[in-house]
DNA sequence: GAGCACTGC
């Protein structure tokens, strides 16, 4: 890569260097051929804050194994950096530049934006891969956007990610389960492949801990001499964002009821502030519906258009959020965290931040995950406030005191890795290590096998996590997998069960259920159940029609419980000719059902590859239940005798549990 | 009588 340096030129003196003072030129793309300065797209590209760091970024990537880029939203880093890298020659010689995102939607939209800017057809030179959709062409695609989950999957077949020259992990500050997994494994890949460049892009300043993590000391492994290895010390560069200023307001005294306080704040904004839409962050559906009701009932607010927003809403209801605000009205969107990162609303000028969100916590002792309302972090609070400054200067009203924000609010949230069951991660790690069946078959050569072993997680307890999960959580994960027959006494994948489970992209308990179904002769039915279990919810959440919803649901209800009920819904959907109208009438989420069809299709292809013949048990739900138990026996529980309120206790740890009100068995319990 | 948000060949 050094050929892109102007010979004899002075190297940049500081990290924050730009073209003029650095004296560094990249000659790979002459101004005329790359079209600099002519089209309006090109001018737009140059106006992005990241543009003036172009040279610095290329210099750092050239000379450091890992570069950490701290950039606020709107800096243009996601769309521009992959293009800079390509212009500098990182995609030459059949190599690919990868850029990962935590969400599918982001992958698609960023890829199409970049293809447009480069004037190429999406899916050729610029492509993307998400589950169920591969828009790339081998040997043609040079810049590839993908979800971090997909890259993790790719590592199973290609543990050293040989085809990539640079991997940019975007939105790393979100610290999702798969981002953390990916970063842990990438660190290992880098030890074996020092030429691989990693760019970590994050919105928060906490780059220090990332930097410490990636400061690897390489073992001497005899690198090819003509390629000088880059510095092991990660470089950090920060790029300013493009958002407008947001004025922060705090309450003077702590509020006791954030729901009422949020409602009052909205009313006071409407009363005193100039036009502009309002976004309110609350915690969940209950809160949101209550606030919507309070605001709609209030007689003095005819000028307010109040809309709820959460993921359980039907697509049509979600789309209302994006419709233009009627003249003379002020739109108020009351939302969960979905509006913090996943959805961007234009036209928001005021944000009301309750300071809370619902978060998942995992207790490894009884092996139970809980959803609890908990205080958010400073990073979240800043992200929420930023939502007010996208189109013009805005205001953010925080329903907590400034003292609380400064002194008590944690800087970062707890990474998901430390809040979840690790059952899926252990499998992924093990698979990444051994490379799985495909690699065992393909990589007969000793050198490759050595590389694979070196990469892997021989010992899950000793794996180098970015944020280490609790020992209890790791032990519990190993225990569950051992009891399912997926890991052996040495915590290695068993053959064939363990390897087959690793091949199936679902929760290991579900995968085990599928494999058992083969023995019981009901795989055809079980994969339908597995597909439904892997989507959010197939039911639509309805406001004000709860009774009707329950009645309709009973039409599908099976005495055997929810799993067989899902099977009934699926059959009904197929029978209707996959009709969206049918879904609407039956309070079923059409998009979820389409996803069920996709996942089911994927599973049936996969099982065929694993040599499993699909077979239906027809009406024999007995075998169906046996297969379910084979995967979920760890969750078995027993109804307490004489319990007036239907209390169960888990077999394993005598934990008190109850049937969830959304279950079809719940109404049976009430005798409806 | 209840469902933060994501994701996977």
Automatic annotation (TrEMBL):
Annotated Helicase C-terminal domain residues: 262-433
Reaction catalysis annotation: ATP + H2O = ADP + phosphate + H(+)
Family annotation (Gene3D superfamilies): 1.20.120.1080, P-loop containing nucleotide triphosphate hydrolases (3.40.50.300)
InterPro entries with a match to the protein in the record: DEAD/DEAH_box_helicase_dom, DNA/RNA_helicase_DEAH_CS, HA2_WH, Helicase-assoc_dom, Helicase_ATP-bd, Helicase_C-like, P-loop_NTPase
Keywords tagged on the record: ATP-binding, Helicase, Hydrolase, Nucleotide-binding
Enzyme Commission code: 3.6.4.13
One of the Pfam families matching this protein, by short name: HA2_C
A single MF term (Gene Ontology): ATP binding
Taxonomy, superkingdom: Eukaryota
Residue intervals of the Helicase ATP-binding domain: 58-223
Protein name per UniProt: RNA helicase
UniProt organism field: Phoenix dactylifera (Date palm)
Gene: LOC103703018
